[in-house]
Amino acid sequence: MEYSKLVSVTGLPGLFELLSSKADGGVVKSLEDKSTKFVSSRIHSFSHLESIEVFTTKDNVNLVEVFNAMKESKTKLPADNDAAAVKKYFEKVYPDMDFSRVYASDMKKMVKWFGVLTANNIEIKLSEIPADAAENNLTENKPKSVETKAAAVKNAPAKKINTPRKMA
Fold first, then answer.
1. Domain total for the chain?
2. Do 38 and 65 share a domain, yes or no?
3. Residue 69 pLDDT more than 60?
4. Greater confidence, 61 or 126?
5. pLDDT attached to residue 155
6. Domain region containing 44
7. Mean of the per-residue pLDDT values of the chain
8. Read out DSSP for 58-91?
9. Among 4, 78, 121, 137, which is least packed, fewest CB within 10 Å?
10. What is the pLDDT of residues 148-163, one digit of tens each?
C-alpha cells in the first residue's frame, strides 16, 4: 500500500485506500477494519493525504513533514481524545506549527492517522515524479510541486464519451 493512494473522506472516520474512482464517487478500503465500500462524491469529499498542508509560523508544510517529525521523535504519542496532551505533544515535536490556526481536532486527527499509518507499516513519503516528467523539470529548472501536479490533472482535457445517437 502506498501513501499516495491514501485519502480522508469527509463524514467517515479514519483513513482509506482509494482503490478506484468513478465520476460519481470512488471505491475505498478502510485501513482500520479492511472493509471495502463505494463512497458517493455527491455526499462526501475526498482529500489525498499528499495534498494536505499544515499551517506553520513560516511557510505551510506538507503533512508528511509533520508525520516524519512524529516518527523521529522519542516522545510517546498521547491519547487522541485528550486535546491538551495532544497540543503539548505537538509543541515538543513540531514547535513551528501555528497553534492559533491549527485546531485541536486537526491535531487529534494527525495523531490518530499517524497511529493508523504505523500500524499498517505504510512508508510515509511523497510520491516521486515519473522519469519523463523529471526530464521536463530539468529543462524548466523548476521542480513540480503537489499544487502544480494537481493543476495539471485538473486542467487535463476531459475524455469524450460516445453516446448512442437517436435514430430517426
1. 2
2. no
3. yes
4. 61
5. 52
6. 3-49
7. 83
8. SS-EEHHHHHHHHHH--SPPPPTT-HHHHHHHHH
9. 121
10. 444 444 455 544 444 4
Q: Are residues 16 and 57 in the same domain?
A: no
Q: How many residues does the chain have?
A: 168
The answer to whether 9 and 44 are in contact (CB under 8 A) is yes
| Helix, coil or strand: residue 120 | coil
Q: pTM for the complete prediction?
A: 0.74
Q: For residues 125 and 13, give the distance between their C-alpha atoms in angstroms, rounded to a whole number.
A: 22
Q: Rounded to an integer, what distance in angstroms lies between the CA atom of residue 44 and that of residue 32?
A: 19
For residues 96-103, average pLDDT: 95
Q: Which of 165, 98, 21 is nearest to 29 (CA)?
A: 21
Q: Are 47 and 136 in contact (CB under 8 A)?
A: no
Helix 104-119 × helix 83-93 angle, to 10°: 70
Kindly state whether residues 12 and 63 are assigned to the same domain. Answer: no
